[in-house]
Amino acid sequence: MEKIIITAAICGAEVTKEHNPNVPYTVTEIAEEARRSYEAGASIIHLHVRFNDGTPTQDAVRFKECMDAIRKNCPAVIIQPSTGGATGMANDERLQPIELSPEMATLDCGTMNFGEDDIFINSISTIKYFAQKMLEKGIKPELEVFDRSMINTAMHLVTKEYIKKPLHFNLVLGVKGGIGASLAEFSFMRESLPPESTFTATGIGRHQFSVAAMAAVSGGHIRVGFEDNIYLEPGVLAESNGQLIEKAVRIAKELGREPATPEEARKILKLRGAK
Predict the structure, then answer these.
(1) Cα dihedral 252/45/190/271 (nearest 10)
(2) CATH 3.20.20.70 fits 6-269, yes or no
(3) CB atoms within 10 A of CB 67
(4) Where are the beta strands (DSSP E) in 204-250?
(5) What is the pTM of this model?
(6) CA 228, CA 76: separation in Å to the nearest integer?
(7) pLDDT tens-digit profile of 172-213?
(8) 194, 155 in Cβ contact below 8 A?
């Protein structure tokens, strides 16, 4: 079976050191967590950034500082900035990281309730705007989908040529307000994807490793990390993103999948500059 791409979502925008003291905030902390993740088997770093007090930001200067530090620690790794940012951010604020011309960036494909009180707003106009900006810069979007309707939205934008094939999706399962993380729900999402697309699957919280196993056995790819889950096992806080990656690698290998190197991941995803 094809090698598996493992993405490390190392800090996110919502989880804090109060949840787990090992969540990185500073440039140095973020670069070290990227290094630990890469050395454990990750080929993609999904990147949010923070100011030193933990405040999430989409500031391009801060992103550049973190991306430069990551590349110094692990030059080969693929860096995938988030354009989701944090709830409440304006469109152009969220889009700042693409000015740095990354190979990939995330593209959220719909509006949803996020937790108890927040609404993550992505109108069709917003999605088109983000997609067009990425297309102009040759950035491959990872299509973030939290339920079946978001796959439909992505495919509509393909027909309008805002998004080009081949497509790569991230199936995000287990967010309160989105689709659940059962085997039936995973299968429904997996079977709803268009032919010849690739996909990563992300399980939130306690679903992280069960979803990783579902993805690995069905030919998909895996995302783990502090953004989505802070526990190595029930009641045991992970000491680093590297520990979470190591566990994901063990699961993948038990199911016959070896982790892809960054160059192998570039070929699988057909990123620009793939050798």
Answers:
(1) -110
(2) yes
(3) 23
(4) 221-224, 231-233, 236-237
(5) 0.97
(6) 24
(7) 999 999 999 999 999 999 999 999 999 999 999 999 999 999
(8) yes
